[in-house]
Amino acid sequence: MRAVCTLCGKIAYENPKMVVGCLIERDLQDPTLQEEDSTILWSLDPSAWLEIGESAAQGAIRETWEEAGADVEVLSPFTQLDIPLIGQTYIIFLAKMKRPHFSPGPESSECRFFHLMIFLSILWHFRQCWLP
């Protein structure tokens, strides 16, 4: 629902935040990061906010480098999720590593690969809980 001024009709736009990231292909495994915060939540792909001036793919490559120290090449879109309840849209790309090296960035305390089925089962659960 848009906020509209009842006097002049001006619309106060509040657009959803774009979250971009990569699912990195490596023998059907995905790099998973442990984010450093008070709740110690696991993030199943390197992802974060898209920045002004970058495409979705460029943002996903940047975030993967910042969070997982992985130099990647985007292969194709993997999935796109809209979560109107919290005003976010996620675009996750399938990517491959250009070099076999990765390490946690300053926002992550751990980085390692997990089997792709773990990611897919959590994605399925996420869709069941958060999407209409």
From TrEMBL:
<dbReference type="Pfam" id="PF00293">
    <property type="entry name" value="NUDIX"/>
</dbReference>
<keyword id="KW-0378">Hydrolase</keyword>
<feature type="domain" description="Nudix hydrolase">
    <location>
        <begin position="15"/>
        <end position="132"/>
    </location>
</feature>
<protein>
    <submittedName>
        <fullName>Nudix hydrolase</fullName>
    </submittedName>
</protein>
<dbReference type="InterPro" id="IPR000086">
    <property type="entry name" value="NUDIX_hydrolase_dom"/>
</dbReference>
<dbReference type="GO" id="GO:0016787">
    <property type="term" value="F:hydrolase activity"/>
</dbReference>
<dbReference type="InterPro" id="IPR015797">
    <property type="entry name" value="NUDIX_hydrolase-like_dom_sf"/>
</dbReference>
